[in-house]
Amino acid sequence: MRRTLTTTLLAAMLVMGLATAAAALGPLYVQDFSDDADGWFGGGGYGTVSHNPGTETATLEGDTSGPSSRFDGYRDTWTGGWSAEIDVYLDPAWDAGEGFDYSVASNNSSGDHLRDFIFHVAKDSSTGMLLVAGSNNTRVVGDDRVVRDDLENLNYREITQAGWYTLQHVFRNDGGTLAVDLNLLDSNGTPLFTETRNTPADTIPGVVGGNRYGWFTVIDVDGGIEVDNHELFAADPENADDCKNGGWDGFGFRNQGQCIKFVNTGKDSR
Prior knowledge:
CATH class: Mainly Beta
Strand content: over 45%
Structural class: mainly beta
Mean pLDDT: 90
Distance between the termini: 21 Å
Number of helices: 3
CATH topology: Jelly Rolls
Helix content: under 10%
Shape: globular
């Protein structure tokens, strides 16, 4: 673990005007890799996960695809906005064509997959730049997921210094439809880049549910990529009604009573 991200998350959202209507964001899931890499899964064509005790990080390598995490479980309820973060070490010295894709996906209100929201990171062959961009799909050629080599044609940010960067997904209600901000932050939490994705058919309420997975859909970097501080946050309930009809689960509480107690007393026992 290199740092606590809760303050970074809130500061970045406020700077960029992305804070949710709720008063605060509470952590639902934290994997800081201090002791292990539990909650991340590889194998069976999904690459490998290696814990690094000395640096308290993990190294992820790709195969047909890359490792993934379900956070603390899938959710089918929209509870007023949520976000996810992971730190990744990026290096402009990577070879041309190397890179990865990282997706955080939303469920629909039936608990099924709705849509992916993907960071693309690639050492571009034509420009020689290490670029970060975003979209809703990983490129597939034949049966293979591949690193994109056309990011210079998209909204992008060039990475010129090796170091730790945060890939942040902010899921929010934009006038009744789901908008997702893919934010790139530096190691100080300073916003460097945003790609916002919005599909009018993804309505709130109705279609959109809660979180699904975090998944490196492709990793093609010699030796893999180093990651740290994987976290999931959700808006805190504002009143007792937010806790009812299963709403408590979307806020990360173990039961309805625990959620209502938080609303009434501010005591957070998640």
